[in-house]
UniProtKB/TrEMBL annotation:
This is Cell division coordinator CpoB. Mediates coordination of peptidoglycan synthesis and outer membrane constriction during cell division. It holds the Pfam family TolA_bind_tri. Residues 131-251 form the Outer membrane lipoprotein BamD-like domain. GO terms for biological process: FtsZ-dependent cytokinesis; protein trimerization. Residues 1-24 form the signal peptide. HAMAP family: CpoB. Residues 70-97 form a coiled coil. It comes from Massilia yuzhufengensis. The gene is cpoB. Belongs to the CpoB family. It is found in: Periplasm.
Length: 251
């Protein structure tokens, strides 16, 4: 019977270890590398035990025992390689899940980041939620849902008082009340445009709406006052030209 030498056994172990090392090289996770190192240590311990047996036994029975031990070692190495493959698969799944998580997080962050928008010819930064809410509210107005628009616009100016859309939202809120025939609320809403948002280009139209609301309330005195202020302050505006025509009809 062939006698196994230490050098031959080392070759056998080297052949078994090479695929193990190749599998481990696929992993870059710290915990996986630690697990692989632990498994290698276990294989090394088995190898040392076999080498000790080689040094201490030389009869045929010992050689047969050594061959059996070698077979068990190969089976153990195969089992350990299987564990490494399982670890590699789990790490791959975890990495894919992490990438998906990062992509989802990035998408959520973008929904919260300010974006540039052009409002009345001016470039401003607005939150995506501002833009969506404002467009939804004005779409209600344009569709003729004045009650729904009034509610949505009132909610908008409450939530986003400093928004680049706030002056416009306040103006359309006044128009929604006007369309509903609630002229007192229309006046109150448009007066906020002329004071809180005095720099807005919607101010002349807001003043015209105030004058028209007073006229429909049969309050000629305040109607004339509002229209005259409009003509005086914004003489070149299209709203001032309309105001002049309405002043003539109020005489």
């Amino acid at each position: 019977m062939m006698k196994l030498t230490t050098s031959r056994l080392a070759c056998l172990f080297l052949a078994a270890w090479m695929p193990l090392q190749a599998s481990a090289g696929l992993l870059d996770d710290d915990e996986a590398r630690k697990a692989i190192l632990d498994l290698r240590a276990k294989v090394d311990a088995i190898a040392r035990e076999l080498n000790t047996r080689i040094d201490s036994k030389s009869d045929k029975t010992a050689q047969l025992d050594l061959l059996n031990q070698h077979e068990q070692t190969m089976q153990e190495i195969s089992r350990l390689r299987g564990q490494i493959e399982v670890l590699a698969n789990e790490i791959s799944k975890a990495q894919n899940s992490q990438k998906q998580l990062y992509a989802d997080l990035d998408s959520r962050i973008k929904r919260l980041e300010p974006q540039q928008a052009t409002v009345d010819g001016q470039v401003a930064e607005v939150l995506p939620a501002e833009k969506t809410s404002y467009e939804a509210a004005t779409a209600m107005f344009q569709s003729g849902d004045y009650k729904g628009a009034a509610t949505a616009l009132q909610d908008f100016v409450r939530r986003f008082p400093d928004s680049a859309y706030a002056a416009n939202a306040q103006y359309w809120l006044g128009n929604a009340h006007f369309a509903l025939g609630d002229y007192k609320k229309a006046i109150a809403a448009q007066e906020i445009v002329t004071t809180t948002y005095a720099g807005s280009n919607k101010v002349p139209d807001a003043m015209l709406n105030i004058g028209s609301s007073y006229a429909l309330l049969k309050d000629s005195k305040n109607a004339k006052k509002a229209l005259q202020q409009l003509v005086s302050k914004y003489p070149e505006s299209s709203a001032a030209k309309t105001a002049k025509d309405r002043l003539a009809s109020l005489k």
